Amino acid sequence: MSNIQTTQHRNTTKRAYTPDLSEFLSQCEVNYLLLLKLVPELQNLYEEDSSNDAVDSRWCLKSSALSLELRATEIARYTTTLDLVIRSPKIKLLKSEKLIIRLYHDAQMLEVMEGSGPGALKAIYEQVKGNQKTVDEKRQVNRFIGECLRNCSRANPVSSETPVDE
Fold it and tell me: What angle do helix axes 137-154 and 21-38 make, rounded to 10 degrees?
């Protein structure tokens, strides 16, 4: 749960959002462990000498409600960057969501780097008129990824062991 600070302004109460860092970091750790449970080869991917050969590797995780398509775009000593496409034909509001996520192998964390819109996700957004993002967008997207990974984990995904061939 996030911390809220209250300030008085012209007889109105305004709440300022303060992120709960321990909750955010815990969610990143849980997401990392869930993804590695579903795609265990990601853990060793960055350790291989031929890591450049692994760039563009693909995996598909499926459940009855959604599919997660992963593609390795960058592999470094301590990080792996993946494109993640979430598809759900059953949920009308979510047809396809594309995210860029990064695995930090040394810290054992998964963080959302970019969402569907352009640019990196900020930790906090100001609430200004016309801003499409919620004040805690990054936290919500990280939680959403966790829910998707749990859904696939419960469903015993069909193709988590074998990369997708194109």
Answer: 30
Separation of alpha carbons 142 and 133, rounded Å: 14
Distance CA 96, CA 67 (A): 10
Please state, in angstroms and as integers, the Cα–Cα distance from residue 121 to each residue in 72, 92, 138, 140, 156, following that order.
20, 24, 6, 11, 30
The pTM of the full predicted model, rounded to 2 decimals, is 0.74
Phi, psi dihedrals of residue 98, rounded to the nearest 5°: -110, 130
Residue 1, C-beta contacts closer than 8 angstroms, at least 6 positions apart: 20, 23
Helix (H, G, I), strand (E, B) or coil at 39: coil
**DSSP symbols for 66-133:** -EEEEEEEEE-SSEEEEEEEEE-SS-TT-SEEEEEEEEETTTTEEEEEE-SSSSBPPS-----TT--S
| Rounded CA separation 80/101 (Å) | 8
pLDDT in tens, 115-163: 765 444 444 445 544 555 555 777 888 898 999 999 999 876 444 444 4
Cβ partners under 8 Å of residue 125, min gap 6:
131, 133, 134, 135, 136, 137
Domain coordinates in residue numbering, the chain: 3-154
